[in-house]
Amino acid sequence: MRKMRWVVIFLCFLAIAVNYIDRANLAVAAPEIEKALGIGPAQMGLVLSGFFWTYALMQMPFGWFIDRIGARIALPLAVAWWSFFTAATAGATSVAAMFGCRLMLGVGEAGAYPSCAKLVSQWFKPAQRALATSIFDSGSRVGSALSIPVVALIIATMGWKASFIITGLLGAVWVAGWFIIYRSPAHGDMTGEYDIAPTPAARSGAPEVTWASLFRHRTLWGMMLGFFCLNFVIYFFITWFPSYLVQTRGFSLKSLGTLGMIPALMSIPGGWIGGIVSDALFRRGWSLTAARKTCMVGGMLLSSVITLSAFTSDVYLMLAFFGISYGSLAFAAASIWSLPADVAPTPNHVASISGIQNFASNLAGIVITTFTGVMVALTKGSFTVPLVVAGGFCFLGAFSYLVIVGRIEPLPATQGDRRAPEGAEPTV
Fold this sequence. Notes:
Elements: H1 4-37, H2 41-57, H3 59-69, H4 71-88, H5 95-109, H6 112-123, H7 126-158, H8 160-181, H9 200-204, H10 218-239, H11 241-247, H12 253-256, H13 262-283, H14 288-302, H15 315-336, H16 339-343, H17 350-378, H18 384-404, E1 414-415, E2 418-419
Antiparallel strand pairs: 1-2
Helix pairs in contact: 1-2, 1-4, 1-6, 1-7, 1-8, 1-11, 2-5, 2-17, 3-4, 3-17, 4-5, 4-6, 4-8, 6-7, 6-17, 7-8, 7-13, 7-15, 10-15, 10-17, 10-18, 13-14, 13-15, 14-15, 14-18
């Protein structure tokens, strides 16, 4: 079981990588789809945003669902659903049909991150969670990086429709592997330092925590705002970044598949370093609050260099700014995705809190895709305004994690106006 925890994280990493390949392939194929369907950037922005509507709206119900049936069933169910609609996108011949496929894609992909956060809470203690989180979360950067050269190659050789069919099949392979490999954690099998202690609410016999009562806490609202700001910037990379390189910087499909990978590649070690640093600070005696906030606030502040990319004509300097920004966002994300397990009042609320913060964060996907498309259309191809605004959201996110989010500790267990006993100890 000690080895299985790392196998589980690797499977989560693969699931998130497939998740991002399937959601990012539309961004890579966007220039070809615009030509095939005869649409402009504003309509393409609408299609790109379709995924985020259902992805955001389904986060909270999916989180509740995962806490009820468990991640062992919920995660492969989600992968199978989104993989089917990825492949179905190849049959779309109109904006409406493609928008509908993207809506259904978002429904399935909503279960990925809450399921992975739930699995980390089940298999890892706080001093190990940021590293474990950084590993599965790096799947998003690997998926984003792979989607550019892989999808570009498929489009160049077989056409844009083949890219959706082939990437959709990846999920079917993953689902089969999950059921063959995965074993549920047995509490008695993980002894000593690997034993995962119950949360204070579970030990103290506190009243059951209602889902609605979670919103009483300022920390949760700060997590929602901060993650909204982080994803506002990240989703520029996932949606409009390939179009920016092609339309503004004159990249070909070949250069898009090589130089265009640089920011995503820089973000992969950025996330791992963020997880290692956060956990190392905690093990060295820093409070969990200081360890997590140092990484979250520092990463958000440094990511604001994305704005500078709009004001340089040097392609390599531009890519460096994008790479630093993406890497810094990944550095912060390792701690951000550790928060649901760190602050959950009981083990049965980890996925719910993950879904709540991810709901807020993915509203940013709707905003950035639509906002960028409209601004590019209004300014006749300029991405300057979206990039400046993205830098501003980096500062707002840093403020949210520093000031609005309180101490990183389990939220008080509440039922109506009742609270858990004052003597309840924090989970360590």
